Amino acid sequence: xxxxxxxxxxxxxxxxxxxxxxxxxxxxxxxxxxxxxxxxxxxxxxxxxxxxxxxxxxxxxxxxxxxxxxxxxxxxxxxxxxxxxxxxxxxxxxxxxxxxxxxxxxxxxxxxxxxxxxxxxxxxxxxxxxxxxxxxxxxxxxxxxxxxxxxxxxxxxxxxxxxxxxxxxxxxxxxxxxxxxxxx
Length: 184
Known about the structure:
Elements: E1 5-9, E2 15-20, E3 52-57, E4 62-70, E5 88-95, E6 106-109, E7 116-121, E8 127-133, E9 139-146, E10 152-157, E11 164-171, E12 176-183
């Protein structure tokens, strides 16, 4: 809608770029800023970090998550690269849940891993979906599991996959979070 502000966020929740919608349906350019290496504070994206988009609707004060389906013809689909280029194929808005899960409530260990790792969450609703994404943001596999009495805990074996950087998109009706996973 006119007046909406689209923000691009790092996995740590830092806003690293924004643009205001003036003409719905027309193309927009959103610049994602990288982290300045000479500063001691993190100011933007590090190489390979996943994009997360949010929309602030000024007319209502509402915050929405924006799911983006990227054009695979461009090289840097869903992750940051200096001088990289991505383009959205489609967008989907959804209400922002109660909150994003705090980092201390999701644990991935060991990370880096040689293939077998564990994911645990101390809170969450009955059903949670985990998408394993490659470095370009393409879904490799989708896992779904139910809440267990003492929270969520799941073991994964990715030893069959090539070494590299992967991401876990963890989402349910209350939150969405991205976690980086390094396969050695």
